[in-house]
Amino acid sequence: MAVRKMSYVDVKVPNRAGTAAQVLRGLQEGRVNLLAFTGFPDKGGKSQIDLVTADMAGVRRVAKKNGWKLGKVKRGFLITGTDQIGAVYRHVKRLADARINMTAVDATCAGNGRFGAILWVKAKDYARAARALKAS
Description:
Elements: E1 2-14, H1 19-29, E2 36-41, E3 46-52, H2 56-66, E4 74-82, H3 87-97, E5 102-111, E6 114-121, H4 126-133
Antiparallel strand pairs: 1-3, 1-4, 2-3, 4-6, 5-6
């Protein structure tokens, strides 16, 4: 299993059908490769979309072209590995043992016996979490 440090940025968009598709289309047209993408409702009729990529400059370029207001760059962890019982638990337990609270975690199977997860912690806990997770 691999735990990678990741950078991501969020964009707030109207909570309407098709808005995520517009964001993804813009990124595709701008040739920006995403490592992960997640979205969820926010307050005030908005949704938050998190864009995880190794090409933050590309995201900024596409955002400027499309008039998107990006949040500040934040960090988290991208976990990939063989899908097996307890795959995510191992990582969550490492943080629990280090007394580090997770802000959020999303995990899914990826087919062909693989899984992936995104894990967030508070900025003040990031360095300790990276050590606990043995992130590269």
